[in-house]
Write a structure and sequence with these properties.
Helices cover about 30% and strands about 25% of the residues. The protein has about 260 residues and is α+β, with helices and mostly antiparallel strands. The longest helix has 18 residues, at about 235-255.
Length: about 260
């Protein structure tokens, strides 16, 4: 699902720096020569998360679970404006198959099982490092505006709903997807952006409410993405904010700007 946030950046990647973008220090916090090691050092450990029972369930798995947002939005009416933006971006060579290679890339996923709940809690942290600060920060305010817009959330909900409907393996399952207004989400660090939704899923004879939150923000030449899934009632503002602050503190202590 983090791919949806990456797609948003790709769509607007051709826009360049915004006039409203504050000046930033162009000295990379992640040294490009050792960025991969630094990105891995900046990841949380299970003991860094709140509570207990967390286990590492994935490392550097950049494909597993990714939702192909660009493919899913194709032909979905609610995604018309997103498709137009993607087409505009492709005129300037910006598309998901032509992304610049990162000089550092690290990912880790944690899972915790809470007895009495149908779903586990997961937290995924991904750090992608560009060679320059400009590559990360160019047009960031535009990306943030799009991710937190009604058009983006409406497209994501419609595309996911359609994907469930079209998947033959989901036959017999009922799914209702709702976006959480961006204004109701905890703020991401460093002027970041957030997106969240809840899914009411029914598979006879059981049903459950699943929450999904995604937050992304720039840190010098690094792009940080944190994804939460689990029972919707577990994804409280205090819990999400606590984890985001811990992720940010670890990165600040490892790659200081």
């Amino acid at each position: 699902m983090a791919a949806a946030l990456a797609a948003a950046a790709i769509v607007l990647g051709c826009t360049g720096d915004s006039a409203d973008e504050p000046s930033v220090d162009l000295t990379p916090a992640f040294d490009p020569q050792s960025a991969d090691a630094a990105a891995h050092d900046a990841l949380l450990a299970a003991a860094d998360l709140p509570g207990s029972g967390w286990e590492v369930t994935a490392r550097d798995d950049f494909e597993d679970g990714d939702f192909d947002f660009e493919a899913a939005m194709s032909g979905v009416e609610a995604c018309a404006s997103m498709e137009q933006l993607a087409a505009f971006g492709s005129m300037f060579g910006e598309d998901s198959s032509d992304q610049a290679e990162y000089v550092g890339h690290a990912q880790i996923e944690f899972t915790r099982v809470d007895v009495g709940f149908d779903l586990p809690d997961t937290v995924e942290v991904e750090i992608a490092v560009n060679a320059t600060v400009t590559e990360t920060r160019a047009g960031w305010s535009l990306v943030k505006t799009m991710i937190e817009s009604d058009e983006f959330s409406g497209c994501m909900v419609a595309a996911l709903q359609q994907a469930f409907h079209d998947d033959p393996e989901m036959e017999g399952m009922t799914v209702r997807v709702e976006a959480v207004p961006a204004s109701e989400l905890p703020a991401a660090p460093n002027d970041g952006a957030g997106f969240a939704m809840t899914m009411q899923i029914g598979i006879a004879p059981i049903s459950f409410d699943m929450g999904l939150h995604m937050y992304t923000w720039p840190h010098s030449n690094g792009e940080i993405t944190v994804t939460f899934t689990g029972p919707a009632e577990h994804l409280t503002d205090d819990y999400v904010r606590d984890v985001l602050e811990r992720v940010d503190a670890k990165i600040n202590g490892t790659a200081s700007e």
